[in-house]
Every structure is written in structure tokens, then in C-alpha cells.
Amino acid sequence: xxxxxxxxxxxxxxxxxxxxxxxxxxxxxAGQRHAIIGPNGAGKSTLFNLISGRFTPxxxxxxxxxxxxxxxxxxxxxxxxxxxxFQVTNIFPxxxxxxxxxxxxxxxxxxxxAFWRGIExxxxxxxxxxxxxxxxxxxxxxxxxxxxxxxxxxxxxxIGITIAGGAGIILLDExxxxxxxxxxxxxxxxxxxxSEGRTLIMIEHDMGVVFDLADRISVLVYGQIIASDxxxxxxxxxxxxxxxxxxxx
Amino acid sequence: xxxxxxxVANVPAREALSQPGAAAVVRLAAPWLALAVAFAxxxxxxxxxxxxxxxxxxxxxxxxxxxxxxxxxxxxxxxxGHAVYYGLGGFLAxxxxxxxxxxxxxxxxxLIPLVGGFSGLLFGIIFGSVSTRRAGTAxxxxxxxxxxxxxxxxxxxxxxxxxxxxxxxxRTKLLHVFGLNFGPQIQVYYLIAGWCLLCxxxxxxxxxxxxxxxxxxxxxxxxxxxxxxxxxRMVRFIAFSLAxxxxxxxxxxxxxxxxxxxxxxxxxxxxxxxxxxxxxxGIGSFIGxxxxxxxxxxxxxxxxxxxxxxxxxxxxxxxxxVMFAPNGIAGLIMMHAPLWQxxxxxxxxxxxxxxxxxxxxxxxxxxxxxxxxxxxxxxSVKATEGTTISVFHIAVDAASAKxxxxxAILIAGGFWLFRMTWPVVGAAWHEAFxxxxxxxxxx
Lengths: 249, 443
Fold this sequence. Notes:
Chain A is an alpha/beta fold. Chain A has helices at residues 44-52, 74-79, 97-106, 123-135, 151-164, 181-194, 207-213, 231-236, 238-248, and strands at residues 6-15, 18-28, 33-37, 59-64, 67-68, 82-84, 169-173, 199-203, 216-221, 224-229.
């Protein structure tokens, strides 16, 4: 039995006296598409920040493929094979779309801080960048400054940067937020395509997207997971309905 | 703006994704060959001794300003203490030269910049390991502190820094190769030009490496860079160390040129000067600091000849650039790039004529301001030397009301006429772009 892709053990995070994450334990096996849902302020983004190294947990453990990564800085966690997107678009706004993706493929291809090799003469960098741009359908926008892309395009670029390094574990924070129905449908198709063969954890408010994509759903309420199950049973869970779905319906 | 331009220029056309061929190599090398030729023939065009000295100073400043822009323009690090690496490079170079002369070591003068570069790199690594842990304001403050630290130690450690008078050397006493003794300025010029070209190529190449691109990424969004696997501190640290290397080379070239290094070269004045040069030229493109270095050196030499308050004009120029052209001279030029790319030569020509029309009253305004400044300066500082001064080779009585009235008329009239040209310039600008767009190539 291989170790789960992500394993959280009794994770806590306090900001001052305020407890945001209050004992989260979760195990996501490799290859699963896992959605985290919950009302605003439940601590979903904080949970992502703890997993990806943006914040250090107050207590508890984060394991990646069985390795303890608790408290490591984001770039180290990224190198161990976890990549994430952000709820508020987080790209390199004044670089071209091409440069945005290229910067995201460099480390994983082993170029690190190389200042002795010309970047234009690296065929693997070029090929990977092109392939990513094809898959997020921005290849024809590659010369455009990322900051002037349309919103939905920026969200696609955000996903592109996240998957460009070939990480095995992907965290997506509200990938369809702020999108029209048609754009969200395209985003779902894109996420389905790019998460093929990887472990995906995503925070999402759009229940259509969640039930469409997720193999399993965890419900986070007030810093605790109150239910974690397959979509069909989450729909029926009375506690979930009262805490979350009930208010939405 | 121009970062984007440079970023976009690197995007390959889809059909050209194959390996660069011979044609691409020629295209890559052509500008540098042209520059090498220009460096070679410049002394034949500007033959006077003072011109040769100025060209030498420009070469040094180009290297220094480009090294500064590795921090400010490429990596987004605002340093107030870059002269530390320039000055220490100079001091170690001058000490190395004296040791070589004393011990008769078989090392020729052209290799001395390596000593400066190594020193700059070393101190860049030492100070950079502290200062690059933070970006933004904290980095700027630490760079200022380190600058003050080194500047004040230069007055305490007299053995190394030579106190008030500095450390001197004799560049002609080193091992002579190819019969060059580096006595005449022309030989020193070519030494500087050669190193300048080498450093320019190296620094340009550096921007087109994985590391160089990640410098831009860290400048734009250090957090995102971290989430794609890069440690922003490490990127900043390497950039800082390499900037120190090139600043040290520039400092050593200055030491060779003047045969003297004193404590002012590590000081805030020198740090400020390189900031001005890079910023006025434009930090958003590679060519910007080069333009800035040439202009600032020229102004420094020319203005200090004709007026005592040249630093005032210098400061005003800087303020003007920050307020009205934050992308520098290179940025102003790049604004017209779309017209050039659209081959809209006719609209460009018309635009140039309109600029000339606007320039005339602007010069009148400038003349009035200069007259006002010079008279004020003379009356407040040099009143004992009489009231007659020479402005633009015209004798002016600073005490007469007529002179002040003339200045007032020039300022008011010049501004009024200049103000009237603004809408004309704006209209010409829009028309030029509309025509170019009509031609179909400007988006």
C-alpha cells in the first residue's frame, strides 16, 4: 500500500487567539480528485496555505507522499511535487503569457538558477511551454502581456502556471470563481484534462462544478471537517445540509 | 512597458520553433559587431584629448549603470549603496597594481579589471547574503546602511583607503605586452572600450538565461516565483553578487583611468549618480542605462565646465524624468516603436516636425529658467565679484531690473507658447497612430 498523496494529521492554525483551523485530519490517495467545500470563512484557503507552505501550522503534520513537509517553505514543497493556484489571480502581470508559463517550467526541467545557458537554446523548455499553452488554449495569446488578458483567460493562465512544472499534486483554489456559466464549463473541461493522472484537491463554491469533477468531497465548517465522502452521500448528509447546502438551497 | 516589449520579442513565431540557424546567429551578433566597430572608430571622430577622456568615462559609466540595472530594472531591487562594490573594486585594483609594480609580477594592466570584478563579487556575496534576505523598503534601507558603513570606514581605515587623498598608482609600470605601456589616453580608452563591450555582452546574455528570466519573475511577483519552485532570496542574492562583479570591473577601470582612487568613490554621491544614470536612461530596457550613462557623463563633464550649479540642473532633470517620463529616455523612444514597426514613416516624420515646433518655445522657457537660476546664484553666493555674469556668452547685469524682466518674459512667454503646442502634439500623436493603425499593423 503506497502512502497517500496528501495526509493531514490533526492540523491546527491560530492567528493570535483566533482558531482558524481546529484539528483537520484528511487523507487523499494518489490520483483522486478531491473537492473541499464549506461556507465562507470556514478556513478553506487557510488549509491550502498550510498544505502549500505559505503559512506554518500551529500544530499538526502535513505529509506529502509519506514525507513530512510541515513548516517547509513553499519553494521546497513545490520541488517535492505540489503545485497550487490562488483564489485571487496570482500571475506575473507584466510578463508575456509565454514568459509566465516558461518561468513555471524551468525548475522542474532542472535549469534552476542557471545563468550560463541561453534560455532560447533549450528545446525542452520551449516544447513544454508550447504544450502547456496548447492545453490551456492560450497559444495564440502567447505574445500578450498577462496583465491585459481577459479574466477567464487569466484564470486559465493561473491553472497553466500551476500545472506547468508537472507536479503530481495540484491544489486549485476556486478555479471557476467569477466565471460565466459557459466559462465555468470550459474551466471544468480544462481541469478534467489537466488533472488526468494527478492528485487534485480543489476548493470550489460552484456545486455544479464540484459534483461534476470530484471523486470525493470534504466539507469544512468552522475549521473542522464535518464530513468526507463520495458526492452522492455528501448530498444526503443531514449535517452537511444544515451547515452548508441547506443555506444555499 | 519595454520589459513587455523585450518579453514579447522572445516569443518564438510558431513556424520558427526549430533550432536557431546561421542566420539567427548573424542576427544575434550583428549589433555587437556594429558596436565594436563604433567603439573602434569613435576616437577618430572625436579627436580632442578631452573628448577621449569623456569617451573613457562613458565606457566606465556604461558598465556601472548596467550593473546597477541588474538590480533595479531586472530584479526590482532599489539599491542606495551600489558604489560600495564599484569603489571597493577600484581600491583593490589600485592596491593590486601597486603590489604588482612593487614585486615586479608578470601581470599586464588589461587583466587588472579582473581584480576589481573579483573584489566586487566577493563583497557582493558578503553584503548580499545579509541585504537580499528582504526586498522592497528593507532592502533599500540595508543598502543605504551598508553604503554609509563602508563610506565611514573609508575615513577610519586610512591604510587601505588612503585617507583624504586616496591611493594612487602608475598604470605604465606594469608588465608591457604588445608594446603597450598605457601611458597615452588612447590606449586606456581602448582598454576600457574592450572591457565595456565584453561586460555589455555578458550582462545582455545574462538577461536571456533561465536565471535572468527568473529575476524578472521575482521582480514581478516573488510569491508566485516561490510557488513554481524558486527561492526569491536566492535569485536576489545571485543577482546582487553578479551586479557586484560588474560594478567592481567598472571601479577597476576607473582606477586604471585616473590612476587614483579616493573615498568618494564608495560614497553616497557615487551611488546616487549611478541611480540617476540608470533611471534617466530608462530601467525598463537594456539600452536605457547605456543611454543614461552616456548622457549623465556628458552632462557631468560639460555642465560642470559652464556652471557652478550643475548639480541643481542635474537634480531638476531627474525630477522631471521621474514626473513626466518614468520609463526614461529609452521609454520615450520605445513609445514610438509601434509606428516604426508599422512602417508609418510619413506620420513619424510629421510627428517629428511637430516635436521640433514644440521644442522651440520649450527652449525659450528653459533659457529663461537658466537666466533666473544663474542670476539668483550669482547674487546670493558670488555678489562680491561684481554683478555682471555671462549667460550663453552674453554679458548680463544681474543687478539690473531689465535682466530680471527679460528672464520673467522668457519664462512666461516660453511657457505660454509651449503650453499652446501641447494639444497640437497630442493631436499629431493620435493622428500618427490612427494612420499607422489604418495601415493595419498596430494593435
